[in-house]
Amino acid sequence: MPNVTRADAVAAVRNPLAFIAARWTPTPRTVQRAALAALVMSVLIVVTGGAVRLTGSGLGCPTWPKCTDDSLTATSEMGLHGAIEFGNRMLTYVLCAAVGWAIIAARATKPYRRSLTRLGWAQFWIVMSNAVLGGIVVLVGLNPYTVAAHFVATSALIAVATVMWQRAREGDTEARPLVGKAVRQLVWVLVAASVLLILVGTVVTGAGPHAGDSSEVERMPVNWENVTKLHAVLAWIVVTLTFALWFVLKAVDAPKGPLNRTRDLFLILLAQGVIGYVQYFTDLPEILVGLHMLGSALVWIATLRVLLSLRERPEVTLPDLPVQAYDTTSASIAGPR
After folding, report:
1. Are 127 and 45 in contact (CB under 8 A)?
2. Measured at the alpha carbon of residue 142, what is the angle toward residues 138 and 145, in degrees to the nearest 5?
């Protein structure tokens, strides 16, 4: 085991990321797995958050940051609702660990990739701000507008995690488009329609019957039937745009990447549509609503993957370079990156 000097210890405290990066170089697969782990956890937090709402456990811990005024954790008297809500809060720490692992792996990559590290830190700050927003949701008694904002912030986290996962699998060279400008514009229209679909979906949730707690909870003052129909119309628009995009890509003889990603999106949309219609006509059973929330995250990821597949950044193979000796006074250690 290598000796750790006092200078090493000081440097590790001063800038732990640079300290680790000087002593460890992850393989490309390790970096990719770390980025994927952060993405998977961002989707899982959507599923568990949905479970909190669908089981009526939103106020299982009635305050924040503690679970009660006198206890940091859920107590036996709080029953299942308290355990579910507190469990979801604890899962946030697992998400933080996954994001932290992605940041460390990105920072230790050789050569150093600033853009990849920044994507990791962007996830970290979204998680932190969304944790505070989650606390506000509890403190204001599950106000539907704050609940909607909480979900939108999680969607932003999924977007950044998806981009980081993709960037971890490609180089840092200038992006080269694989399709023409008209096709790229069509995809941006598809992305915009998907964003609108998600936003209207939060209104459906905010006006719907699953308020998140058995007590009287404020709902959005809109007609739930009408906004649900609008949500369905937007879903069909997204499906139609996806179908049209696939035909356009076939017509212009696009590479397999964009074609395959568009096909994946179309299949996910079909599955999501089936779940949506079944839950609507069966009075919104909790299990189907939970699956629909998972489907929403998967649709968003698939949409972003279509967008990201329209360009490529080939990896540049560099000759093996000697590992520079660790210097506690070097500029790389003197300040965080």
Report:
1. no
2. 120
Q: Which residue has the tokens 């809109």?
A: 222
Q: How many CB atoms lie within 10 A of CB 305?
A: 20
Q: How far is CA 120 from the centre of its chain?
A: 12
- Residue-wise pLDDT tens digits, 235-275: 999 999 999 999 999 999 999 999 999 999 999 999 999 99
What is the C-alpha separation between 311 and 175, in angstroms, rounded?
Answer: 6
Q: SS3 for 141? A: coil
β-partners of residue 177 are: 311
The dihedrals phi and psi of 22, each to the nearest 5 degrees, come to -70, -20
- Listed in order, strand segments (DSSP E) in the chain are 176-177, 311-312
What is the predicted pLDDT for the residue at 320? 45
Q: What is the pLDDT of residue 180?
A: 94
What's the distance, CA 141 to chain centroid? 25
The torsion of the CA quartet 22, 23, 29, 32, rounded to 10 degrees, works out to -50
* Residue 19 banded pLDDT, cuts 50, 70, 90: confident
Record the tokens describing residue 10, joined without a space: 């000081």
Beta-bridged to residue 176, according to DSSP, are: 312
For the entire predicted model, the pTM comes to 0.88
| CA angle in degrees (0–180, nearest 5) for 88-161-271 | 75
